[in-house]
Specification:
- The protein is α/β, with parallel strands linked by helices.
- The protein folds into two domains: 118 residues, Rossmann fold (3-Layer(aba) Sandwich), CATH 3.40.50; 68 residues, ACT domain (Alpha-Beta Plaits), CATH 3.30.70.260.
- The chain is built from six helices and 13 strands.
- It has a six-stranded parallel β-sheet with strand order 3-2-1-4-7-13, with helices on both faces. Strands 9-10-8-11 form a four-stranded antiparallel β-sheet, covered by helices on one side. It has a three-stranded antiparallel β-sheet with strand order 5-6-12, with no helix packed on it.
- β5 and β6 form a beta hairpin.
- It is globular and about 50 Å long.
- The N and C termini lie close together (5 Å).
- 34% of the residues are buried.
- The mean pLDDT is 94.
- GO terms for molecular function: ribose-5-phosphate isomerase activity.
- One of its GO terms (cellular component) is cytosol.
- Belongs to the ribose 5-phosphate isomerase family.
């Protein structure tokens, strides 16, 4: 898998890097020939530790390549992401990229997303109203919390995350609700999917 990733990186000048345990494994092989745009503090720290040049989407209107992992994927390379709490920044960098490579483990494949939960990033002051709307839609949800702190998990942008039972109609319309920043459903836009099988390439 390392060799395949390096082939995609070759010749690229600006590369976006996602967040999570999958992508973290590959940061150590990244060459110092490019500028990297990280999607989270944890990725920034790891890139910095490796002495790589770091930039931001504020500086680069277009990014050559985006590399990330995923929480779930289907046969059309649609994704559910956001376990690491960086879904909005990931989607911004992904949308600015000419090419996106997604690294996924085979056990994360889903024939359908029915029964999965999709993260919704919500501005804190709008939380009660949005939870009420979700409840009235008859959808299950979990306000994401961390056992190591009191209160909700906060995203990279300082918002809350509500994990909502997958419902395509709700996902397609939820950003019309005032206070919803973004959702973690990534509709495939020519994503290149690289699947790790049984810890092998």
């Amino acid at each position: 898998m390392d060799t395949k990733i390096l082939k995609f990186i070759q010749g690229k000048k600006v590369i976006g890097i996602g967040t999570g345990t999958t992508i973290s494994k590959y940061i150590n092989i990244l060459p110092n020939t490019a500028v990297y745009v990280p999607s989270s503090i944890s990725t920034t720290l790891q890139l910095s530790k490796n002495g790589l040049t770091i930039s931001t989407a504020l500086v680069h209107e277009q990014i050559d390549l985006y590399i990330d992992g995923t929480d779930y994927f289907d046969s059309n390379a649609n994704l559910i992401k956001g376990l690491g709490g960086a879904l909005t920044k990931e989607k911004i960098i992904c949308s600015a990229s000419k090419q996106t490579v997604i690294i996924a483990q085979s056990y994360k494949y889903r024939q359908t997303f029915d029964g999965c939960f999709v993260p919704i990033e919500v501005i804190p002051m709008s939380l009660p109203r949005i939870l009420s709307i979700i409840s009235k839609r008859g959808l299950g949800y979990i306000l994401r919390e961390d056992s190591r702190k009191i209160g909700p998990v906060m995203t990279e942008l300082g918002n809350c995350i509500v994990d909502v039972e997958y419902d395509k109609e709700f996902i397609d319309s939820c950003k019309n609700i005032c206070g919803v920043v973004e959702h973690g459903f990534f509709e495939s836009n020519g994503f290149i999917l690289m699947v790790e099988k049984d810890n092998c390439e």
